[in-house]
Backbone:
C-alpha cells in the first residue's frame, strides 16, 4: 500500500522561533549578521520573530485546523549543539521533542530540516563552511538529533537550499555570514555542504531513516531571439543553480563549471563523491519562479546575467508568477535523471502579498490564485510521469523573511509582529478546503 500524498506547510527555525538566547541556545551566523547596521531592511530584529518557541502549541493547533498531514520545520543547530560540536543542550532537544510529540498526536507527519542556514557562530569563527571539519560536525549533530527523535521521525531533510546559502551568504554577502569570497572558495563551500549532506545521510540511513536534500530550482528561460552567447549563459546558470547540488548526489559527478574559470571543484578528496553519490531517498524542490538568463556585459565577473520576466503577474516581492515553471521543473528532473531520481517533494512554494487585517479578516485572492495554479502544476507534472509525493506551502505564519525583515508576508496566517496575534487568511481556508477535497475517503 502506497503512502498518502503529503499536504503540508513549511517553516524555518530562525524565521519563526525567536527566543534567540533562551534555554542555552547560542548565537548563529544569522544572529550576528542581523545585528550589522544595514544588513536587515529597516533594522528589523529577529529576536521575537513569530515567538514560535513559546507559541508552538498554538501553531500546531493551526496546523490541525488547516487539515495538513505533514509539517516541514527546521531544527536550530545552535539550540541543540550550541557551539556546533561538543556539548549537547538537552533543553534545546526537549523543545523539538515536545513539538514532534504534538504533531504525531494530531496525525501530522514531522519532516524536519537539519540545516536551514543557521550555522552556529562558533563554527563560523573556526572557518565555517570553508572548513572541512564543519561537515563532520554537522554529521555528529545529525546523529544527536536522530537518536532523540528518530523513533517518531522517519524522513529527514539534511540541507535547505544550499545554492542560496552558498551564493547569497558566501559570494554576494547579502545573507549570513556575509562573506564575499572568490569563485574557487565559493565552490569549496559548495563541496563542504555536499559532504555534510553525504555524511549526515550516512548517519540517518544507518539508523533506518530516510535522507532528503532540498534544492531551490529555477527553470532557465532564454530571451526572445536568443544568441549563442545567451544560450551559453543559460547553460552556465543552470549548472550553478540547478545542477551543482543535484548532479553529485544523483550521478556522482559535478556539472561542467568551466564557464566559471574553475577546472575542478576545490577540496574534493578521494572517496568524497562516492559518499555523496546516491545519498538521497528523495529530492525536495523549492520553486518560486523561472529565471530569464542573458549573456553578461563584458567585465561583469559572472558568465551570465539575469533579466526580468514580463507579461505575468508578480508577487509583493516582485517575483514573476509562472505556475507552469513548476511543472517544467518537476518533469525536467524526471527526464534529466531518469531511474537515478528518487521521489520528489515540493518542499516550498508560496508567495508574498500585501496583506492587511480588515474587520478581523485578511482577503488574499492573489495567494489563493497562486496556490490553485501551482497545485494544478503539480497535478500536470504527475500526469506527465513525475513521481511527486508531497506539496508544502511556504509558509504557515508571516515570519522574519531574512534580509527583508518583516516586510514580506508569505503566511497563510497573518501575524501582527507587535502583539503576535495570529489571524488565518482567506488562503488558509482555501488550502484547507483543497486538502479536505483531496484526502476525503470515497
Residues:
Amino acid at each position: 500500500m502506497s503512502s498518502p500524498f503529503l499536504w503540508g506547510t513549511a517553516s524555518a527555525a530562525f524565521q519563526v522561533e525567536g527566543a534567540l538566547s533562551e534555554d542555552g541556545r547560542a548565537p548563529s551566523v544569522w544572529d550576528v549578521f542581523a545585528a550589522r547596521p544595514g544588513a536587515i531592511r529597516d533594522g528589523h530584529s529577529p529576536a521575537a520573530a513569530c515567538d514560535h518557541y513559546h507559541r508552538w502549541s498554538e501553531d500546531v493547533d493551526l496546523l490541525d485546523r488547516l487539515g495538513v498531514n505533514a509539517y516541514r520545520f527546521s531544527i536550530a543547530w545552535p539550540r541543540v549543539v550550541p557551539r556546533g560540536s561538543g556539548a549537547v543542550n538537552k533543553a534545546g532537544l526537549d523543545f523539538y521533542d515536545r513539538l514532534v510529540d504534538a504533531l504525531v498526536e494530531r496525525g501530522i507527519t514531522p519532516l524536519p530540516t537539519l540545516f536551514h542556514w543557521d550555522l552556529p557562530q562558533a563554527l563560523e569563527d573556526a572557518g565555517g563552511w570553508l572548513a572541512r571539519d564543519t561537515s563532520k560536525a554537522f554529521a555528529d549533530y545529525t546523529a544527536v538529533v536522530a537518536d532523540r527523535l528518530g523513533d517518531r521521525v522517519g524522513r529527514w531533510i539534511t540541507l535547505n537550499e544550499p545554492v542560496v546559502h552558498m551564493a547569497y551568504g558566501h559570494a554576494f554577502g547579502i545573507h549570513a555570514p556575509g562573506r564575499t569570497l572568490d569563485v574557487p572558495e565559493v565552490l569549496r563551500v559548495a563541496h563542504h555542504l555536499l559532504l555534510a549532506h553525504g555524511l549526515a545521510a550516512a548517519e540517518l540511513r544507518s539508523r533506518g531513516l530516510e535522507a532528503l536534500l532540498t534544492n531551490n530550482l529555477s527553470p532557465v528561460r532564454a530571451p526572445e531571439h536568443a544568441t549563442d552567447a545567451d544560450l551559453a549563459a543559460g547553460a552556465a546558470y543552470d549548472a550553478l543553480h540547478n545542477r551543482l547540488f543535484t548532479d553529485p548526489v544523483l550521478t556522482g559527478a559535478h556539472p561542467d563549471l568551466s564557464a566559471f574559470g574553475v577546472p575542478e571543484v576545490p577540496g574534493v578528496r578521494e572517496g568524497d563523491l562516492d559518499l555523496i553519490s546516491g545519498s538521497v531517498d528523495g529530492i525536495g524542490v523549492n520553486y518560486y519562479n523561472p529565471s530569464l538568463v542573458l549573456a553578461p556585459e563584458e567585465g561583469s565577473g559572472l558568465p551570465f546575467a539575469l533579466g526580468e520576466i514580463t507579461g505575468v503577474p508578480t508577487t509583493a516581492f516582485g517575483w514573476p508568477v509562472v505556475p507552469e515553471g513548476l511543472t517544467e521543473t518537476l518533469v525536467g528532473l524526471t527526464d534529466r535523471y531518469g531511474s537515478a531520481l528518487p521521489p520528489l517533494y515540493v518542499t516550498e512554494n508560496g508567495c508574498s502579498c500585501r496583506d492587511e487585517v480588515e474587520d478581523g479578516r485578511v482577503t488574499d485572492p492573489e495567494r489563493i490564485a497562486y496556490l490553485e495554479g501551482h497545485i494544478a502544476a503539480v497535478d500536470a507534472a504527475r500526469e506527465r510521469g513525475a513521481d511527486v509525493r508531497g506539496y508544502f506551502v511556504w509558509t504557515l505564519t508571516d515570519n522574519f523573511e531574512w534580509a527583508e525583515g518583516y516586510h514580506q508576508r508569505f503566511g497563510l496566517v497573518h501575524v501582527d509582529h507587535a502583539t503576535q496575534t495570529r489571524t488565518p487568511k482567506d488562503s488558509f481556508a482555501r488550502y484547507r478546503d483543497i486538502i479536505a477535497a483531496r484526502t476525503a475517503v470515497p
Observations:
- Residues 6-439 form a domain with the TIM Barrel fold (CATH 3.20.20.80).
- The chain is about 40% helix and 15% strand.
- The radius of gyration is 21 Å.
